[in-house]
Design a protein that fits this description.
Elements lengths: L10 E8 L8 H10 L2 E4 L3 E2 L7 H4 L4 E7 L8 H15 L7 E8 L3 E6 L6 E5 L2 E10 L2 E4 L5 H4 L1 H19 L7
Antiparallel strand pairs: 1-4, 1-5, 2-4, 3-4, 5-6, 6-8, 7-8, 8-9
Helix pairs in contact: 1-3
């Protein structure tokens, strides 16, 4: 018999895709901090050109910001976090189109799991129409992707950024005085 153990909390990250930052930034950042607490890292916008999937809705050129939050969060909060980010997307929508795409997820020592509203073979149902996407795993000191990993997350640039965030997360776990667990 296995004995259930509550896992360490995760580092909440949110990937933001947008082509019209002037229409939502920094107000969006303030809204995210109101929901999830102070940010830890807010990267500058960088190129997102691995797919044209979002072009029609978001416009072009699309860039991405990756942000993380100071306070670690329980892993079972991911579905509720995604529901909150969906509401923000709706709140800022213009003429029925989203102004930005928000993809929340958790970095742990073992993996990166993103939240999504779309089911697929490798995704696990969380609750309320939200699924967990096992996007990357951490093995032998680097991120390993899967055949289903989105091309942008499989790229070296993103993996490098995620490694930096994972290092920050590991430091928080090792220094519990600096994070709310």
């Amino acid at each position: 018999m296995s004995i259930p153990v509550i896992p360490d909390p995760g580092l909440l990250i949110i990937s933001i895709l947008c082509s019209r930052w002037e229409s939502c930034w920094p107000a969006l950042l303030n809204d995210l901090e109101d929901l999830f607490g102070p940010t830890d890292e807010v990267c500058d916008a960088f190129t997102f050109d691995q797919t044209d999937y979002y072009d029609k809705e978001l416009g072009t050129p699309i860039t991405r910001r990756l942000i993380s939050f100071e306070d670690l969060k329980p892993l079972d909060a991911l579905a509720d976090i995604k529901i909150s980010t969906n509401r923000l997307e709706e709140m800022y929508a213009q003429q029925g189109k989203r102004l930005f795409n928000l993809d929340p997820g958790f970095i742990t020592l073992q993996n990166l799991v993103l939240a999504t509203g779309k089911p697929f073979t490798h995704r696990l149902y969380l609750k309320a129409g939200i699924w967990g996407d096992l996007t990357l795993v951490w093995q032998k000191k680097h991120w390993v992707d899967f055949p289903w990993t989105f091309p942008d997350y499989a790229g070296d640039d993103m993996k490098s950024r995620l490694t930096k965030l994972r290092r920050s997360y590991k430091n928080k776990l090792n220094n519990p005085h600096t994070s709310n667990r």
